[in-house]
Protein backbone atom coordinates (compact mmCIF):
# COMPACT_ATOMS: atom_id res chain seq x y z
CA UNK A 1 0.00 0.00 0.00
CA UNK A 2 1.16 3.53 -0.75
CA UNK A 3 2.20 5.10 2.59
CA UNK A 4 0.17 8.21 1.75
CA UNK A 5 -3.04 6.14 1.80
CA UNK A 6 -2.28 4.38 5.07
CA UNK A 7 -4.47 5.29 8.02
CA UNK A 8 -3.08 6.91 11.14
CA UNK A 9 -1.09 4.45 13.19
CA UNK A 10 -1.82 3.23 16.71
CA UNK A 11 -0.16 5.10 19.59
CA UNK A 12 0.55 4.39 23.24
CA UNK A 13 -2.09 7.00 24.06
CA UNK A 14 -4.63 4.80 22.25
CA UNK A 15 -3.62 1.92 24.51
CA UNK A 16 -4.09 3.98 27.68
CA UNK A 17 -7.48 5.16 26.43
CA UNK A 18 -8.41 1.53 25.77
CA UNK A 19 -7.47 0.62 29.32
CA UNK A 20 -9.83 3.26 30.68
CA UNK A 21 -12.61 2.30 28.27
CA UNK A 22 -12.63 -1.44 29.03
CA UNK A 23 -11.83 -1.44 32.76
CA UNK A 24 -15.46 -1.85 33.80
CA UNK A 25 -15.92 -4.99 31.70
CA UNK A 26 -12.44 -6.56 31.34
CA UNK A 27 -10.38 -7.40 34.41
CA UNK A 28 -6.53 -7.53 34.56
CA UNK A 29 -4.96 -10.99 34.50
CA UNK A 30 -2.09 -12.34 36.64
CA UNK A 31 1.54 -12.79 35.64
CA UNK A 32 2.97 -15.91 37.29
CA UNK A 33 6.46 -17.40 37.40
CA UNK A 34 7.15 -20.85 35.95
CA UNK A 35 9.89 -22.51 38.04
CA UNK A 36 10.38 -25.37 35.56
CA UNK A 37 10.63 -23.13 32.50
CA UNK A 38 12.95 -20.82 34.43
CA UNK A 39 15.20 -23.80 35.13
CA UNK A 40 15.16 -24.89 31.48
CA UNK A 41 15.86 -21.40 30.11
CA UNK A 42 18.21 -20.42 32.96
CA UNK A 43 16.27 -17.19 33.37
CA UNK A 44 13.13 -16.05 35.15
CA UNK A 45 10.23 -17.08 32.92
CA UNK A 46 6.76 -15.65 33.52
CA UNK A 47 3.35 -16.58 32.11
CA UNK A 48 0.60 -14.02 31.46
CA UNK A 49 -2.65 -15.90 32.06
CA UNK A 50 -5.11 -14.56 29.51
CA UNK A 51 -7.03 -17.82 29.91
CA UNK A 52 -8.75 -16.35 32.98
CA UNK A 53 -11.06 -14.02 31.05
CA UNK A 54 -14.76 -14.89 30.95
CA UNK A 55 -14.36 -16.06 27.35
CA UNK A 56 -11.13 -17.94 28.05
CA UNK A 57 -8.95 -15.79 25.79
CA UNK A 58 -7.31 -12.37 25.37
CA UNK A 59 -9.51 -11.35 22.44
CA UNK A 60 -12.10 -9.87 24.80
CA UNK A 61 -9.82 -6.85 25.30
CA UNK A 62 -9.78 -5.70 21.69
CA UNK A 63 -13.41 -6.58 21.05
CA UNK A 64 -14.53 -4.63 24.12
CA UNK A 65 -12.51 -1.57 23.15
CA UNK A 66 -13.90 -1.55 19.62
CA UNK A 67 -17.55 -2.17 20.51
CA UNK A 68 -17.54 0.31 23.41
CA UNK A 69 -16.23 2.97 21.00
CA UNK A 70 -19.24 2.60 18.66
CA UNK A 71 -21.97 5.22 18.48
CA UNK A 72 -25.38 4.44 20.04
CA UNK A 73 -26.82 4.10 16.53
CA UNK A 74 -24.25 1.50 15.49
CA UNK A 75 -24.67 -0.42 18.73
CA UNK A 76 -28.41 -0.57 18.12
CA UNK A 77 -27.92 -2.00 14.61
CA UNK A 78 -25.62 -4.76 15.90
CA UNK A 79 -22.22 -6.18 15.03
CA UNK A 80 -20.72 -8.98 12.98
CA UNK A 81 -17.27 -10.51 12.71
CA UNK A 82 -15.25 -13.29 11.11
CA UNK A 83 -13.28 -15.44 13.49
CA UNK A 84 -11.26 -18.60 14.09
CA UNK A 85 -13.13 -18.79 17.39
CA UNK A 86 -11.75 -16.65 20.19
CA UNK A 87 -12.53 -13.27 18.62
CA UNK A 88 -16.02 -14.50 17.84
CA UNK A 89 -16.41 -15.56 21.47
CA UNK A 90 -15.28 -12.14 22.60
CA UNK A 91 -17.65 -10.26 20.29
CA UNK A 92 -20.54 -12.54 21.30
CA UNK A 93 -19.87 -12.05 25.01
CA UNK A 94 -19.45 -8.27 24.82
CA UNK A 95 -22.59 -7.97 22.70
CA UNK A 96 -24.51 -10.01 25.27
CA UNK A 97 -23.35 -7.72 28.09
CA UNK A 98 -24.55 -4.69 26.12
CA UNK A 99 -27.77 -6.23 24.82
CA UNK A 100 -26.66 -6.11 21.18
CA UNK A 101 -27.18 -8.37 18.17
CA UNK A 102 -24.07 -10.29 17.10
CA UNK A 103 -23.55 -12.46 14.01
CA UNK A 104 -20.35 -14.52 13.98
CA UNK A 105 -19.05 -15.84 10.65
CA UNK A 106 -16.76 -18.86 10.97
CA UNK A 107 -15.25 -21.52 8.73
CA UNK A 108 -15.77 -25.24 9.12
CA UNK A 109 -12.32 -25.47 10.75
CA UNK A 110 -13.42 -23.78 13.99
CA UNK A 111 -13.43 -26.30 16.90
CA UNK A 112 -16.76 -27.45 18.34
CA UNK A 113 -15.91 -26.11 21.81
CA UNK A 114 -15.68 -22.56 20.48
CA UNK A 115 -18.84 -22.85 18.40
CA UNK A 116 -20.87 -24.10 21.36
CA UNK A 117 -19.56 -21.30 23.58
CA UNK A 118 -20.53 -18.65 21.02
CA UNK A 119 -24.04 -20.07 20.84
CA UNK A 120 -24.21 -19.99 24.64
CA UNK A 121 -23.61 -16.23 24.55
CA UNK A 122 -26.59 -15.79 22.24
CA UNK A 123 -24.76 -15.05 18.99
CA UNK A 124 -26.06 -16.03 15.57
CA UNK A 125 -23.52 -18.41 13.97
CA UNK A 126 -22.91 -18.52 10.22
CA UNK A 127 -20.64 -21.36 9.05
CA UNK A 128 -19.08 -20.46 5.70
CA UNK A 129 -16.51 -22.42 3.69
CA UNK A 130 -13.23 -23.94 4.80
CA UNK A 131 -11.12 -20.85 5.48
CA UNK A 132 -11.07 -17.64 7.44
CA UNK A 133 -11.09 -15.75 4.13
CA UNK A 134 -14.43 -17.36 3.19
CA UNK A 135 -15.91 -16.28 6.52
CA UNK A 136 -14.55 -12.77 6.07
CA UNK A 137 -16.13 -12.37 2.65
CA UNK A 138 -19.54 -13.41 3.98
CA UNK A 139 -19.15 -11.08 6.97
CA UNK A 140 -18.76 -8.02 4.74
CA UNK A 141 -21.76 -9.17 2.75
CA UNK A 142 -23.80 -9.05 5.97
CA UNK A 143 -22.49 -5.56 6.66
CA UNK A 144 -23.97 -4.37 3.36
CA UNK A 145 -27.23 -6.30 3.63
CA UNK A 146 -28.07 -5.77 7.32
CA UNK A 147 -26.20 -2.61 8.30
CA UNK A 148 -24.11 -4.42 10.91
CA UNK A 149 -20.72 -3.05 11.99
CA UNK A 150 -17.80 -5.37 11.25
CA UNK A 151 -15.54 -5.91 14.27
CA UNK A 152 -12.24 -6.93 12.68
CA UNK A 153 -10.23 -9.61 14.52
CA UNK A 154 -6.88 -7.81 14.39
CA UNK A 155 -6.34 -5.11 11.73
CA UNK A 156 -8.13 -2.29 13.56
CA UNK A 157 -6.84 0.58 15.71
CA UNK A 158 -9.23 -0.05 18.59
CA UNK A 159 -8.64 -3.80 18.57
CA UNK A 160 -4.85 -3.40 18.54
CA UNK A 161 -5.01 -0.83 21.35
CA UNK A 162 -7.22 -3.13 23.39
CA UNK A 163 -4.75 -6.01 23.09
CA UNK A 164 -2.00 -3.55 24.00
CA UNK A 165 -3.41 -3.27 27.53
CA UNK A 166 -1.73 -6.63 28.16
CA UNK A 167 1.61 -4.91 27.63
CA UNK A 168 0.79 -2.19 30.16
CA UNK A 169 -0.12 -4.81 32.76
CA UNK A 170 3.09 -6.76 32.13
CA UNK A 171 5.19 -3.62 32.50
CA UNK A 172 3.44 -2.79 35.77
CA UNK A 173 3.96 -6.29 37.17
CA UNK A 174 7.47 -6.85 35.76
CA UNK A 175 9.20 -3.53 35.03
CA UNK A 176 12.54 -5.34 34.56
CA UNK A 177 11.28 -7.50 31.68
CA UNK A 178 13.82 -7.76 28.84
CA UNK A 179 12.32 -10.43 26.54
CA UNK A 180 8.72 -11.15 25.51
CA UNK A 181 7.45 -14.06 23.39
CA UNK A 182 4.14 -13.34 21.65
CA UNK A 183 2.10 -15.75 19.51
CA UNK A 184 1.97 -14.28 16.01
CA UNK A 185 -0.74 -14.59 13.39
CA UNK A 186 -2.80 -11.62 12.21
CA UNK A 187 -0.61 -9.41 14.36
CA UNK A 188 -3.17 -7.59 16.52
CA UNK A 189 -1.92 -9.12 19.77
CA UNK A 190 1.72 -8.77 18.77
CA UNK A 191 1.36 -5.17 17.59
CA UNK A 192 -0.48 -3.98 20.68
CA UNK A 193 1.81 -5.62 23.23
CA UNK A 194 5.02 -4.73 21.39
CA UNK A 195 3.92 -1.11 21.02
CA UNK A 196 3.09 -0.82 24.72
CA UNK A 197 6.30 -2.44 25.95
CA UNK A 198 8.67 -0.68 23.56
CA UNK A 199 7.06 2.68 24.39
CA UNK A 200 8.44 2.32 27.91
CA UNK A 201 11.44 0.09 27.31
CA UNK A 202 12.75 0.50 23.73
CA UNK A 203 15.47 -2.13 24.21
CA UNK A 204 13.09 -4.95 25.12
CA UNK A 205 13.47 -7.94 22.78
CA UNK A 206 10.16 -8.82 21.16
CA UNK A 207 9.97 -12.34 19.71
CA UNK A 208 7.09 -13.52 17.53
CA UNK A 209 6.22 -17.22 17.74
CA UNK A 210 4.38 -18.84 14.84
CA UNK A 211 3.37 -22.34 13.89
CA UNK A 212 5.15 -23.90 10.92
CA UNK A 213 1.91 -24.62 9.04
CA UNK A 214 0.45 -21.76 6.97
CA UNK A 215 2.30 -19.01 8.84
CA UNK A 216 0.88 -16.14 6.81
CA UNK A 217 2.39 -13.21 8.70
CA UNK A 218 5.82 -14.82 8.72
CA UNK A 219 5.69 -15.49 4.97
CA UNK A 220 4.39 -11.97 4.35
CA UNK A 221 7.35 -10.50 6.21
CA UNK A 222 9.72 -12.56 4.06
CA UNK A 223 7.92 -11.41 0.90
CA UNK A 224 7.89 -7.79 2.02
CA UNK A 225 4.13 -7.52 1.56
CA UNK A 226 0.94 -9.35 2.63
CA UNK A 227 0.52 -12.72 0.91
CA UNK A 228 -2.19 -15.38 0.78
CA UNK A 229 -1.56 -19.00 1.81
CA UNK A 230 -3.92 -21.98 1.89
CA UNK A 231 -4.89 -22.94 5.43
CA UNK A 232 -3.58 -26.19 6.90
CA UNK A 233 -4.66 -28.23 9.90
CA UNK A 234 -2.80 -27.22 13.05
CA UNK A 235 -3.11 -27.48 16.81
CA UNK A 236 -2.70 -23.70 16.83
CA UNK A 237 -6.01 -23.17 15.02
CA UNK A 238 -6.38 -19.71 16.59
CA UNK A 239 -3.39 -18.61 14.51
CA UNK A 240 -5.01 -19.61 11.21
CA UNK A 241 -6.25 -17.08 8.67
CA UNK A 242 -4.77 -14.47 6.37
CA UNK A 243 -3.72 -10.93 7.23
CA UNK A 244 -5.53 -9.29 4.31
CA UNK A 245 -3.87 -8.06 1.12
CA UNK A 246 -5.09 -4.56 2.01
CA UNK A 247 -3.72 -4.77 5.55
CA UNK A 248 -3.81 -1.31 7.13
CA UNK A 249 -1.94 -1.64 10.42
CA UNK A 250 -0.57 -4.94 11.65
CA UNK A 251 1.79 -5.87 8.80
CA UNK A 252 3.68 -2.60 9.12
CA UNK A 253 3.61 -2.66 12.93
CA UNK A 254 4.89 -6.24 13.15
CA UNK A 255 7.61 -5.47 10.59
CA UNK A 256 8.74 -2.43 12.58
CA UNK A 257 8.49 -3.92 16.09
CA UNK A 258 9.63 -7.53 15.57
CA UNK A 259 13.13 -8.39 16.80
CA UNK A 260 13.11 -12.13 16.14
CA UNK A 261 10.86 -14.92 14.89
CA UNK A 262 10.59 -18.53 16.06
CA UNK A 263 8.61 -21.26 14.28
CA UNK A 264 7.35 -24.23 16.27
CA UNK A 265 6.23 -27.60 14.91
CA UNK A 266 3.00 -29.43 15.70
CA UNK A 267 4.88 -31.79 18.03
CA UNK A 268 6.47 -28.87 19.84
CA UNK A 269 3.09 -27.17 20.25
CA UNK A 270 1.68 -30.40 21.70
CA UNK A 271 4.64 -30.55 24.10
CA UNK A 272 3.84 -27.01 25.23
CA UNK A 273 0.19 -27.87 25.85
CA UNK A 274 1.14 -30.97 27.83
CA UNK A 275 3.71 -29.02 29.86
CA UNK A 276 1.20 -26.36 30.91
CA UNK A 277 -1.26 -29.00 32.03
CA UNK A 278 1.33 -31.07 33.89
CA UNK A 279 3.28 -28.29 35.59
CA UNK A 280 0.70 -25.51 35.95
CA UNK A 281 -2.64 -27.34 35.74
CA UNK A 282 -3.54 -25.03 32.86
CA UNK A 283 -5.60 -26.10 29.86
CA UNK A 284 -4.16 -24.19 26.91
CA UNK A 285 -5.11 -24.26 23.26
CA UNK A 286 -2.33 -24.77 20.73
CA UNK A 287 -1.76 -21.09 19.94
CA UNK A 288 -1.49 -20.32 23.66
CA UNK A 289 1.30 -22.85 24.09
CA UNK A 290 3.56 -21.61 21.29
CA UNK A 291 5.72 -19.44 23.55
CA UNK A 292 6.21 -22.32 25.97
CA UNK A 293 6.93 -24.59 23.00
CA UNK A 294 9.66 -22.21 21.83
CA UNK A 295 11.37 -22.45 25.22
CA UNK A 296 11.00 -26.23 25.59
CA UNK A 297 12.40 -26.77 22.09
CA UNK A 298 15.54 -24.79 22.89
CA UNK A 299 14.86 -22.37 20.02
CA UNK A 300 14.81 -19.26 22.20
CA UNK A 301 18.36 -17.96 22.17
CA UNK A 302 18.61 -15.14 24.69
CA UNK A 303 20.76 -13.75 27.46
CA UNK A 304 17.69 -12.15 28.98
CA UNK A 305 16.99 -12.54 32.67
CA UNK A 306 13.28 -11.67 32.78
CA UNK A 307 11.23 -13.39 30.09
CA UNK A 308 7.46 -13.45 29.65
CA UNK A 309 5.08 -15.17 27.27
CA UNK A 310 1.34 -14.92 26.79
CA UNK A 311 -0.93 -17.90 27.48
CA UNK A 312 -3.52 -16.55 25.12
CA UNK A 313 -6.51 -18.88 25.49
CA UNK A 314 -7.93 -22.19 26.70
CA UNK A 315 -10.67 -22.92 24.17
CA UNK A 316 -9.68 -26.34 22.91
CA UNK A 317 -11.73 -29.47 22.25
CA UNK A 318 -11.21 -32.05 24.99
CA UNK A 319 -10.51 -34.91 22.55
CA UNK A 320 -7.47 -32.93 21.38
CA UNK A 321 -6.18 -32.69 24.95
CA UNK A 322 -6.90 -36.39 25.50
CA UNK A 323 -4.88 -37.41 22.43
CA UNK A 324 -1.92 -35.29 23.49
CA UNK A 325 -1.91 -36.65 27.04
CA UNK A 326 -2.38 -40.24 25.91
CA UNK A 327 0.61 -40.00 23.59
CA UNK A 328 2.88 -38.50 26.25
CA UNK A 329 1.83 -40.05 29.54
CA UNK A 330 0.10 -43.39 28.87
From TrEMBL:
The keyword Lyase applies. Residues 25-313 form the Tryptophan synthase beta chain-like PALP domain. One of its GO terms (biological process) is L-threonine catabolic process. GO terms for molecular function: L-serine ammonia-lyase activity; threonine deaminase activity. It holds the Pfam family PALP. Its EC number is 4.3.1.19. It catalyses: L-threonine = 2-oxobutanoate + NH4(+). Gene3D superfamilies: 3.40.50.1100. Keywords: Lyase, Pyridoxal phosphate. Its cofactor is pyridoxal 5'-phosphate. Catalyzes the anaerobic formation of alpha-ketobutyrate and ammonia from threonine in a two-step reaction. The first step involved a dehydration of threonine and a production of enamine intermediates (aminocrotonate), which tautomerizes to its imine form (iminobutyrate). Both intermediates are unstable and short-lived. The second step is the nonenzymatic hydrolysis of the enamine/imine intermediates to form 2-ketobutyrate and free ammonia. In the low water environment of the cell, the second step is accelerated by RidA. NCBIfam families: PRK07476.1 (NF005680). Belongs to the serine/threonine dehydratase family. This is threonine ammonia-lyase. The lineage of its organism: Bacteria, Bacillati, Bacillota, Bacilli, Bacillales.
Amino acid sequence: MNPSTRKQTVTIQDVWEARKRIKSIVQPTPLITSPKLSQIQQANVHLKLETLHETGAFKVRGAANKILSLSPEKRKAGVTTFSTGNHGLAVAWIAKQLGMKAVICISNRVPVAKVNAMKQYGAIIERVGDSQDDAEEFCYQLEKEQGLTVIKPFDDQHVIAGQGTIGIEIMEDLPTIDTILIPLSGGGLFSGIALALKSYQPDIRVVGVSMENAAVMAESLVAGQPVVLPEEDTLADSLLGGIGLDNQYTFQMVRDLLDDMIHVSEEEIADGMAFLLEHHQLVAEGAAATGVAAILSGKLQTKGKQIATIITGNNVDMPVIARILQKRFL
